[in-house]
Amino acid sequence: MARMENSEVASVFSEMADLLHIRGGDPHRIRSFRRTARILDNLPESVAVMVRFGTFGKWPGIGPGSVRRVKEILKTGTCDDHRKLRQELPDGLRDMLEVKGLGASTIRLIWNNLKVGSLAELEYAARNGTLLKLPRIGERTAARILKGIEDHRQRIGKIPYVRARRTGMSIVETLSELPAVDQIALGGSIRRGKANIGDLDILVAADEPEVVAQRFLTMPFAEEILARGTGRCSIRLASRQQVDLRILPPENWGAGLHYFTGSALHNIAIRVRGLKLAGIKISDKGIFVRNTENRLDPGRTEEEIFAAVGLPWIPPELRENTGEIEAAAQGKMPNLVTRDHLRGDLHMHTVASDGKGTVVEMIDASLALGHEYIAITDHTQNLSIANGLDEARLAAQIRHIREVEDSVGRIRVAAGTEVDILQDGTLDIELGLLQQLDWVVASVHSHFQMSGAEMTDRLVRAMETGVVDCIGHPTNRRLGHRKPSELDLERLLKTARRLGVAMEVNGNPGRMDLSDKHCRRAREMGVPLVISTDAHSPKHLRYQEFGLITARRGWVEPRNVLNTSPWSEIADRRRDRLRNKNWAIPGAPVRRDPGNSLPVHSDRPPASADHYPSLDEEEEEPASAAQPQQDVDLEAMLDAELDEDLRQRIDDFLRNGGDDVLQMALERRGENAMKVAFELLWGATD
Ligand SMILES: [Zn+2]
Ligand SMILES: [Zn+2]
Question: What beta strand segments (E) does 232-387 contain?
């Protein structure tokens, strides 16, 4: 049985605190629920384990009441007080709590005075001016609430692929323990690899459907049962996500798997093809003679379904009815890129900037994955928030990478960087130094608020420097958080093709950027792609799978992907481009020794400052000017599940302040850094 995570138990306490606050209750109790939520979120180990061994009750700040409630929550997903509060208040208040910028205090004000208890009512009250009658709510607040509702609508029901799959897999694991289960798989848009997932679909083949249904409906995270039958059951999770389970007879597995993988448009096209071509009807129950109940074949495998309409098996990522059926019929299906095709990873960070691993640790992890080459691409100085490298430190790092590469052998380690593209499209490292690197990723990490045309100009200008090999996370989208920049994709891709610059398919599960559609356009236009991880720790090196699935949805073949080539070809491309710019090509001796003119340690003044400003000159620049707009990976880390270090850092910030870098990152998520920090650590508060 899948165990509840500490954060899930904590969220029950947070919700109790919020609901009690809205309804009006003993402030002491509200504080106590919040405190328990906070403690649960910060426990060093699983609360389920601690309860079992009796150590939870001894934890500082935990009384017998909390222990009793936690036990109940672990068993049933809820507890007595929680259920009572939910019964007393309308469900819609919980949706309102999920609207950004709307805290429990404001909801309490609105609920107590207007009895507005759902998002629809709230929107109505904000639009017709009723809200303005309340104290503390002015035009601006009302406008912000409307914006929050709209954002919430866009988010609701859609969660990033990685989260949907994680939830789906934990349900799959629970159900696979049942002997009755013959086959089990994730279906729907998860199987097709979409970046944003609505409802979760789980498919099971079983002879005893009741047993499977029973287990599914009694799982602890099933918050609400929406439908129960022997063929289909639906639940809603605490996250509001809906999960549909289809239980198929084993003989029907292929037909059901195909049908419930979708997409709906693909299924329709397959059905039409069956009717036209062979006078057969394809459904989730199998293959039938047209207009009859006469079943020709139950469809045990997906291959049989496709074969019945004269097609080879089509990979799920392509099933969107965007030409895959025609391509399959003509024998022109793309030979999609797979993990085995990828020879290396060309975007990763180390402890030199904001990564967690040393160069050696990143190499070891890459070797374990079978990579032939990698590029170390730490951030540059504009990202002081991410401890970005200035020229002196970058030069020293080049030397360090060369040394480590020589001592390890076995793998080509390219000295690279992820250079920051400034607001005007210039790069924040001297071109002379960038030219000496083996691989340059250029990315935008600040000033996202510009028009699509301006952003395109900015990226084009960066590419035109000639030193850039690849544009990192080109649209800067953050799944569930930030929309992609509205780039002029055609102009961007045309420029990239002309200048021989690749576009990244960033595998960070919070990014998946380029998107599937953009990948497909890049492929059509002959712009090479690079499937990278943007790893900030050795374990992130596995994120290539998220870039892969995105590229596969874009019909991408190995020949469209630069890092399916041997390193020598990638190096040749760079050499050709630099030669076209009439730049000196860093030859082998220079590569092994990045030049006597370069400083090797940041604390030593450069021997010669011909190629770039000296450290002193650098310091004259008001380095903080651009900072308030900065973004970067700290924000990505804030988006993801917080790791222990970051929790500790936020906790320190709340206690002691003084962390300007963190404060800026928090302020970009909401106007009040303290409040955002609280929410991150302990869930929504007022
Ligand atoms: Zn980046
Ligand atoms: Zn990066």
Answer: 232-237, 242-248, 280-283, 286-289, 295-297, 344-345, 373-379
CB atoms within 10 A of CB 677: 22
The pLDDT assigned to 151 comes to: 78
607 occurs within a structural domain? no
Distance 472 CA to ligand 2 centre (A): 7
Amino acid 607: pLDDT = 35
58 and 135 housed in the same domain: yes
Span 499-513, average pLDDT:
96
Determine contact, residues 467/434, Cβ cutoff 8 Å.
yes
Residue 611 placed within a domain:
no
Looking up residue 209, the CATH number of its domain turns out to be 3.30.460.10
- Rounded distance, CA 349 to CA 475, Å? 20
pLDDT at position 446 over 80: yes
pLDDT at position 655 is 66
Same domain, yes or no: 533 and 418:
yes
CA of 305 to the centre of ligand 2 (A): 43
Please indicate, yes or no, whether residues 528 and 384 belong to a single structural domain of this protein: yes
Q: Are residues 187 and 211 in the same domain?
A: yes
Distance 152 CA to ligand 1 centre (A): 26
pLDDT at 595: 36
Q: Name which residue leads in pLDDT, 154 or 527.
A: 527
Q: How many residues does the chain have?
A: 686
How many A from CA of 643 to the centre of ligand 1? 19
Long-range contacts of 19-26 (CB under 8 A, 24+ apart): 19/85, 19/86, 19/89, 19/93, 19/94, 20/85, 21/104, 21/105, 21/108, 21/686, 22/89, 22/93, 22/104, 22/107, 22/108, 22/111, 23/85, 23/88, 23/89, 24/108, 24/112
What's the gap in Å between 443 CA and the centre of ligand 1?
6
Number of separate domains in the chain: 5
Tell me: do 20 and 100 sit in the same domain.
yes
* pLDDT tens-digit map of 192-219: 999 989 889 999 999 999 999 999 999 8
Strand partners, 84: none
| Domain CATH number, residue 145 | 1.10.150.110
Domain boundary among 294, 329, 364: 329
Verify that 354 and 495 share a domain, yes or no: yes
Cα dist. 69→3, 60, 65, 82 in Å? 16, 16, 6, 9
Regarding whether 279 and 196 lie in a shared domain, the answer is no
Q: What distance in Å separates the CA atoms of residue 590 and residue 134, rounded to the nearest whole number?
A: 70
In this predicted structure, the answer to whether residue 588 has a pLDDT above a threshold of 60 is: no
| Ligand that lies nearest to the alpha carbon of residue 476, given by its number in the listed order | 1
Q: What is the pLDDT of residues 650-681, one digit of tens each?
A: 877 776 666 777 877 787 776 667 767 777 77
pLDDT at 415: 98
Q: What is the model's pTM?
A: 0.68
CATH at 294: 3.30.210.10
- Show the domain range for 303: 254-329
534 C-alpha vs ligand 2 centroid, how far in Å? 5
Given 155, 187, 214, which residue is the final one in a domain? 155
Percent of the chain clearing pLDDT 70 (strictly above): 89
651 CA to centre of ligand 2 in angstroms: 25
Ligand nearest to the CA of 346: 2
